[in-house]
Design goal:
Length: 275
Amino acid sequence: MSQSNLGLVISPGAYHQPFTHCTGDGELIGVIDARSLMSYFPSTAGSDVNQETINHHQKPQSPEQSFSNNELQISKKPELSRFFEIASIQCIVSFTGYFVQTNTTFSKVLGFTPEEFLAEPLINFVHPEDRATTIAELEKLTRGEATLAFENRYRTKDGDYRWLLWTAKPYVSEQLVYAAARDITERKNHELAVIKDISDRQQTAIQLQQERDFSEAVINTVGALITVLDRQGAIVSFNRTCEQVTGYSFEEVKGQQFWDFLILTQEKKDSASRL
């Protein structure tokens, strides 16, 4: 078949669907799609056969069809498969709450095989204390809202739990969620240890204050003169009986040296002479 005849077949207004080609004696040798042959006919000046002519006769695709076709093409590329197996946790989840696909990292972190992940609802892998918030986050995803920095705990095969930090993007038309996560267990353990340390210190401070309050209550209820000094001899406690007898309030004597403040001058001299 000549290039000019091919041009007639796909020229404006002409029939441009796939057609058959026969030998001179009528033997069918194949079905030919004219557009598939274009790369074999180099364009020449004056020729009606060019890509613009073909595009003129192609039915326009809707944005949805174009997006779907692009996704289909991308899904077949080995690069996408390799990307899915990068170091971070990756998974695809259906709106029904089941995993559709998980990557190798997910299995390494939690210990389950892909088949085990797909066999039961994902919520079964979540820590019981985190299930309510996880379900609420999944409901947001089904409404088309993306997830950023959502934390929850997932059960490992040996019964421990790992903290995961999630980012997810829903595709409502596909009823699928594409998600990625990082294992932040070490960071969370450190944070919890710091919180526990602060809590322990606060609890210790509360206990010490309670002990001081109890001691103060005892000191202030007895009829004896009671003064408490620190190692340097400064007054740190001065009970009510002392206040009544000396006429000084605790605020007046607090931090004062006992022997400078309450011992009479003559007694100081007598004490010094005995040394």
